[in-house]
Amino acid sequence: MFSEGLIRPGNLPILPRFMISVRTPFRLPSLWVLRAFLVVALAGGLGGCGNDPHPKPLHTKREDGTPWVVRYAYMPDDPRSLDPQFAYDQMSRLLLEPVYDTLLEYHRFKTDPFEVVPCQLEKMPERVKNADGTEDYVCRLKKGILFHDDKCFPDGKGREVTVRDVEYAWKRIVDPKVECPALAPLEEYVVGMEEAYEEAKKSGNFDYSKPFKGFEVVDDQTFRIHLLKAYPQILYWMAMHFTCPVAREAVEYYDGKEHPDGPGGQIVQRPAFQWHPVGTGAFMFDYYEPASRARLIRNPHYATETFPSDGIPPENVEELRPYFGHTLPIVDEAQITVFREQTPIPILFRQGYLDNMGVNKDAFNKVVTSSRDITPEYKARGVTMEKEVDVSTFFTTFNMQDKVVGPNKKLRQALSCSYDTQSFVDIFWNGVAPAAQQLMPPGFFGYDANYRNPYGFNLEKARKLLEEAGYPGGIDPATHLPLELTIDAAASGSEERQMTEFMQKQFEQLGIKVKVIENTFANLLAKEDNGNFQILYGTGWGADYPDPENFYMLFYSHNFPPKGKNAALYKNPEFDRIFEKMATMDNTPERLECVNQLRTILAEDCPQLFEFHKAFYGVSQPWAGHTKTNMMLEGGLKYARVDVAMRERLRKEWNQTPTWPIALAVIGIIFAGGYAVQLNRKRND
Amino acid sequence: MTSYIIRRLLYCVPILFGVMLITFVLFFIVQPPRARARAILGEKATPQQIDDWLHKHEYDKPLPKLFVSQTWKLVTFNFGLSDKTNRPIAKTFIDGAVPSLCLTVPAFIAGFFMAVGASLYLVLIRYSALDRFGVFVCVALMSIPPMVYMFIGQSALALHFAYFPAYGFEIRGFSTAKFLLLPVALIVVMHFGYDVRMYRTIFLEEITQDYVRTAFSKGVSQLRVLFVHVLKNGMISLITLVVTSLPALIMGSILVENFFGIPGLGNALVHAIQTGDAAMVNALVYLGALLYLGSLLLTDILYAVADPRIRLS
User: Min CA distance, B44 vs chain A (Å)?
Assistant: First the structure.
């Protein structure tokens, strides 16, 4: 509300000073001329601007005259860094992995189970078991791999990758200034890593000229990784960008300082290496603008890999046959838009300006029917849908050192039985995410889709177990009052609050009382570190690599927080023994037996209540042929394909601009003008 | 005048100190740096990495020392690097100011002229049925929350009518205009109801003045009276109203920037708050406060310049 009396500050009388001006007053153009101009400008502006939000592609045609193919992708946030030894968030990986090829790589199509195959290496590394318990991995680089053409190299031409570049990358893992997240998991296994790190930390500088004990250069193509003990998971680390070769020239050239690089020797600031990646991958980095967009361009010299012909899902074989052995990447350019706000994503997809999309909650009802099929509208547009299950598990953790839930296994089992995971998933995840029956998500060695958790939802059983736990009907015999439990949960929004309430209600069905403490996510993590909780809700684990060790280590007693991730503070010598044995084994039937034993122990002891594996529906436009996404692979852009002619045609069809709203606006303006003229005339009369 | 300006500048010191204290309490006491480090470095960060990060950013100092060092950084305009992206904050500010200004300056100018035009139109047809309808529309426009305009604008004009891009920004000649038309139009519409109502009242009050009656009795036409006499005299009141919205130009329109993906300062601020980037929030809030105080001072000075009867003492 506002008061009209406040308009003139001080309520001073305003004298008509301008009225007595002797100057000839400026003659305004006729209102009709102004209006006509406005209408023309409006119509011209609307008609001419178009609604394509993407910048023009670099070219329209390739050298051979065929159309230049652009793939339009997006990311829901900004990357933290594009330094391969530092970045580990998904957004960074989306931009980084197409640029940096790795020593090994996840096979694009083999997802059940996931499989690691050679990429920059000629063949899989050779595992050498030494008599003293140490192990070596002998690796041989492919010949002729070139770095991208870049200013950091002489004449701007990318040179050939050698073992020295791999060694340099491994040294960067150790360098304290780089802050590599892979250091902590690797230093326990790689010879000399911990010492080198401590030494560099003490002296304040990492000496790159000194050899690094864990990495032996055999010749220009061959190197050996020395391990302190068996650690077959090292192969998965070789499939990550942390261990991929890096050109020292690039790190030194892109120092983020001022240099006379501008036109005519003008001083300009060079980007830092972490914002100017120079790799060997199928795409070269062009630019990235924070909160806006990034562009990658085909690497014309790329020959490290071709499109695979094995492991293709049978339903896609015919469609993909023309691509078998095809050079990579298939598209020439990738434009990646950053969406900090998620609402426009479905709009741009609907208009044909994004080639694929993960269906978020805003768009769910428009794209997916209640029977979990694609809606007729999208089906008619030729859009295809695929359910993508992420390699993660969400759970609720019981504190095993808490004096109530810790020693009482039956109580934990009762709580586990009282929680209806399927209803939770139906309500909060539109029924998309699979309810978790076990710790590991699908696609892992040892994951059994038919396994059912013996302490899954069963209210009758829960009540019986609670009675056996010493709380018949939920009443604590010591106080004759309902047993009171406390859940610590993250509460960053109303939805999270509703989720916690759901859990509270589920537990309270047993007659107990549940108190909820709401925390910021950061505080919740701090409580997890300190073991300062009874029941912790709202955390999960995303796989670093698809090996049972990466999940079952969450209950290994040597991994207590804050250093490790055993948040439940679970300690079971039997579990530890089997885990230690399983961790270093190859994927044999014996290992499968071990994994199954671990699963049974965890189900019985219930240190965690397994909730769900994150999943979503992915939709693709008819021109962007889609096959199931490999969730371990963020560099899959090189396999993406696009039918440009179809996209062009459908975009035009889907984005027709109607003229009637403009006509309506023009009529409105004319009417308003006419009305004023008429009224004016009447009043003057 | 000089003593007034000096006094006003001195008033700014406690205000700025208060601003710095509040942001410090929010980002260093309510949410301790260790918790933010966890959120920034990710769930899988080790205690060693967190300690290193805290040490590198000097967040492991005791609170009073930390407050002094943070305040010193702001006062000396040495903002350092963003906690989240490691990019220089000064660069983020300069990079963000351009898109923000691209959005808000046209919106400000177009909004002003359109509101003045529309309010003069309503004054021209004053007390008629269409005038009353116009006022009703203005009240309706004022009552609708900004988010509704953005949703409707995006889904109707961008999605269904396909006139504008639904998202994105690019500084490149005509294509910049293509991205800005819709957000600018929406900002104009968001303020339109309030402004037109306000200006209409000013002009109506002006039109009852004696000089207007004199003009009419001398046979001057309606249009001329409105556009020449009333408009000029009403301007003094308008200037004071309009200048107070100047600081919002630089900080951008937070909601609209975020919604349409315009990489301006408003967008940067929202993102910094969401990601717990204290260094960025501190700097942006401090600069925002500085600009706000500066333009308030400018308002008073401009007011005195526009109307010599007002003395600042």
Answer: 8
> Across the A/B interface, how many CB contacts are shorter than 8 Å?
197
Chain A residues within an 8 Å CB radius of B158: 51, 347
Domain annotation covers residue B164: yes
In chain A, pLDDT over 90 holds for what percent of residues? 66
Say yes or no: B172 contacts chain A, CB-CB below 8 A.
yes
Task: Based on the fold, state whether residues B178 and B125 are members of the same structural domain.
Answer: yes
pLDDT score for B295: 79
- pLDDT given for residue A494 in this prediction: 80
| Number of structural domains chain B divides into | 2
CA A161/CA A144 separation, integer angstroms: 7
Report how far residue A684's alpha carbon sits from residue B126's, in angstroms, rounded to the nearest whole number. 14
A10 has a pLDDT exceeding 80 = no
CA distance B248 to chain A (A): 20
Q: Mean pLDDT, consecutive 10-residue segments, chain B of 313 residues?
A: 83 91 88 81 77 86 89 89 85 87 90 92 89 93 91 89 88 82 92 92 89 88 85 81 72 82 88 86 89 81 71 58
The reported pLDDT for the residue numbered A676 is: 85
- Radius of gyration, CA atoms only, chain A: 31
Report yes or no on B311 lying in a domain: no
Same domain, B115 and B134: yes
B236 close to A (CB below 8 A): yes
Q: DSSP secondary-structure letter at B230?
A: I
* Amino acid (1-letter code) at residue B156: A
DSSP A506: H
> Do A80 and B84 make contact, defined as CB atoms within 8 angstroms?
yes
> In this structure, are residues A296 and A98 in contact, taking their beta carbons and an 8 Å threshold?
yes
- Residue B66 shares a structural domain with residue B108: no
Q: Which of B47, B233, B236 sits opposite A563 (nearest CB)?
A: B47
Is B254 inside any structural domain? Answer: no
Return the structure tokens found at A75: 């990311």
Residues B212, B111 share a domain: yes
Domain ranges in chain A?
392-613
Torsion of the alpha carbons at B292, B298, B303 and B306, rounded to the nearest 10: -140
Q: Is A75 helix (H, G, I), strand (E, B) or coil?
A: strand
- Cα separation, A238 vs A397, in Å, equals 32
Instruction: Report the pLDDT value the prediction gives residue A269, as an integer from 0 to 100.
Output: 85
CB atoms A19 and B85 under 8 Å: no
Would you tell me which residues 138-157 of chain B have a C-beta closer than 8 angstroms to some C-beta of chain A?
A: 151, 154-155
- Whether residue B208 is found in the same domain as residue B238: yes
For residue A656, the distance in angstroms to the closest alpha carbon of chain B comes to 7
Mapped onto helix, strand or coil, the DSSP state of residue A223 is strand
Contact A55, B175 (CB under 8 A): yes
- B contact residues 30-59, partner A, Cβ 8 Å cutoff: 31, 34-36, 38-39, 41-49, 52-53
Q: Does A658 touch chain B (CB under 8 A)?
A: yes
Q: Residue A521 above 80 pLDDT? A: no
Instruction: Tell me the CATH number for domain A392-613.
Output: 3.10.105.10
The C-alpha of B107 sits at a distance from chain A's nearest C-alpha, in angstroms, of: 15
**Are residues B51 and B184 located together in one domain of the fold?**
no
The boundaries of the domain holding residue B63 are 2-91+269-306
Which pTM does this prediction carry?
0.85
What are the counts of helices (DSSP H) followed by strands (DSSP E) for chain B?
15, 0
Longest alpha-carbon distance in chain A: 113
Residue B177 counted as domain residue? yes
> B244 and B106 share a domain?
yes
Q: Does B84 touch chain A (CB under 8 A)?
A: yes
Alpha-carbon gap: A325 to the closest alpha carbon of chain B (Å): 37
pLDDT one-digit tens code per residue, A269-278:
889 999 999 9
Q: What's the confidence (pLDDT) of residue A41?
A: 52
Distance from C-alpha of A16 to C-alpha of B206, rounded to nearest angstrom: 9
Q: How many Å apart are CA A205 and CA A208, to the nearest integer?
A: 9
Report the residue of chain B nearest A43, measured CA to CA.
B163
Complex ipTM, two decimals? 0.85
